[in-house]
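Today's session is about reading a structure prediction critically. Students often jump straight to the picture, but the first step is always the sequence itself: look for stretches that repeat, for charged clusters, for runs of hydrophobic residues. Only then move on to the predicted structure, which in these notes is written as discrete structure tokens rather than atom positions. Here is the chain we will use throughout the hour.
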Amino acid sequence: MILKNKRTQERIQLSYTEFQARFAQNIQTALESYIRTENAKPSFKANKTPESDFYFDLQWNFNHFGNSAWCIERL
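Below is the predicted structure for this chain, in token form.
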């Protein structure tokens, strides 16, 4: 996985487990924001699992719901 810093344009390459360890707080923030957004939708079904939906499209959700200086450039 390749991540890019939005401010410095620095790029780093991490494995998925390294990414989860290093960005655990940012992932959690993005997940909470995603869940709040999904719950606000009138078509949201209570039996849905938002965590699996979040991780299904991790790149887009992390980049758009997270509040990190880093974005996922490529998985």
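Discussion point for the tutorial: The mean pLDDT is 91.
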